[in-house]
Fold this sequence. Notes:
This protein is α+β, with helices and mostly antiparallel strands. The protein has a domain at 3-69 and 239-628. The protein contains 26 helices and 15 strands. Helix 2 (52-66) packs antiparallel against helix 10 and helix 21 packs across helix 22 (530-545). Mean pLDDT is 92; it is low at 1-24. Zinc ion (ZN) binds at residues 446, 451, 474, 477.
Amino acid sequence: MEKIVTIASMALFTAASSSCADEPQTAPWIVDRFDDIKVIRYEVPGFAELPLDEKELVYYLAEAAKCGRDILYDQNCKYNLPVRRTLETVYENYAGDRECAEWKALEKYLKKVWFANGIHHHYSNDKFVPEFTEGYLLDVIETIPEERFGELNTLRREVCTAIFDPEVCPKRLDQTAGVDMIAASGSNYYEGVTQAEAEKFYADMADPRDPEPVSYGLNSKLVKQADGTIAERVWRVGGMYSPAIERIVYWLEKAAEVAKEPQKTTIAHLITYYKTGDLREFDRYNIHWVKDTLSNVDFVNGFIEDYGDPLGRKASWEANVNFMDREACRRTEIISENAQWFEDHSPVAPEYRKKQVKGVSAKVITVAMLGGDCYPSTPIGINLPNADWIRKEYGSKSVTIDNITYAYKQAALGNGFLEEFMLRPEDRARIEQYGKLGDDLHTDLHECLGHGSGQLAPGVKGGELKSYGSTLEEARADLFALYYLGDPKLVELGVVPSMDVAKAQYANYIMNGLMTQLARIEPGKNVEEAHMRNRKLIAEWCFERGKDDRVIEWVEEAGKTYVVVNDFDRLRTLFGRMLREVQRIKSEGDYEAGAALVEQYGVQVDPELHREVRERYDALGIEPYGGFVNPEFELVEQDGRVADVKIVYPCDYTQQMLGYSRDYSFLPNVN
Ligand code: ZN
């Protein structure tokens, strides 16, 4: 899903007086919090060690990643740019009372607009409800010299309506069946056309016999013109959004100069696509991009994901720049290389082990810049390209972003969650030290080996377990991972320093499965989602089977309920026994046994415990959504040549947003 690049401008860098660059290790991870949002900074380990040409490549790609920010604002809603700019002008110029409740509400609203790249919540799509009045905003504007607002003065009515009138663009995206989804959605992908007209326009365009269909409509707005005909306004140099796209192309051309083959050609295809708007060229770019698995620095930059278009056709602009995390890739390589050993030694019955295992490789990356629809809120994994025919012929790239998940973990430390739910200090200490490594390894083992392990009995086709199939499949992969996390082989292979990693993972897994995951379930509901059922199934089964020896135990203390693991070795043995049984169920297609297992252990919620967990979780006040501030990069020149690229970590969300609006804003108010 994405790629791109960047580097912060010198202006931004030098202006960042609030930068925590001197002490990135000790600066707080959460740099801002408002409403239901926390803003986190992320670090880019390994950047300083990159060769100079790769640092330079990151720099140019990072610049390109920042240049499309305005495009996304305009795509999300046509009022977003004038709203943002009006509020920023107010924010930077108002000399009155900045402590009163209404000002604080206005400031919070602006922070939310920056976070969502517009006036609608990034996740729920609902329009924000301002907690200040239109009268207050107009009064504040009155105190600021008119010329500061420039052209915005003529758009005051539209801006106020967009912010304050609940009838105008109430949702960014509305896919309710039966309504005209284009009319109901506040996004800016269509103008003057009905849903039926748009659907017909693209149905007429498609050639059903084309084995390599281009993604029609991906890079354009569809509009009804004055003469009543319908046409696309294409997002390209010379077309819609040209001023921003020209800047993107400028930096991509710089990037192409320092890139090596085959990446040089990949970037050249992207530039041609931006210049022509030709979607066949976009496909050529994607094919080059997906085939290049060796370049250390990689990127996403373009109109990529179509979630924001009610018809699922038009793509929002996004960007990401990254390089390989060699250390983490080494871990997945070691695991993949030893896949056969793990299979041969598994507790599964010999006839249900796979004779020939193929390890799956997964790339782990470090992100250096987020842009467009990946900023501030970002996916933690990427799987691209999206065109089905390219995926089928050329495959796709699947990566996980390690430094982002690390930052999330760091930000969660000290939020009180572990202290509230994990009783024993030694368990908390192990989780703080090894929790992330344990989680990462669990994911590696689950994805690279677990799902691919085992084989079916002759005559069994798969699918026999029906609606219980996905829960049991997740349980199989989790059990494989849990069992091997506690195997001394991992220490021998050098992927973990000690068995404490397994103990941290086991304590956390059992607590989550038996208790804390209930916080995400609505009152009165049972567990329905397959991954959650799987965790409950495993934890409850092991509790039950180890009951006599108190392997896992419920503890009451000071009126609160806790769950503790007393015997990690016995727990691992139980994981092995359960893996053997779940593999047998799958291999033999034993529906009765599978259904009984899931129904008995994976579904029913104890309402008393559920209520207690939700109350304790709510009391912690943890913001449900997170996003990021980007690092900044600076070119260091010596004798007229680039000698180095420096990285710093700003920790002021507002300053970064204002800086981007000052230095990377290229589009007019109305596009
Ligand atoms: Zn899975």
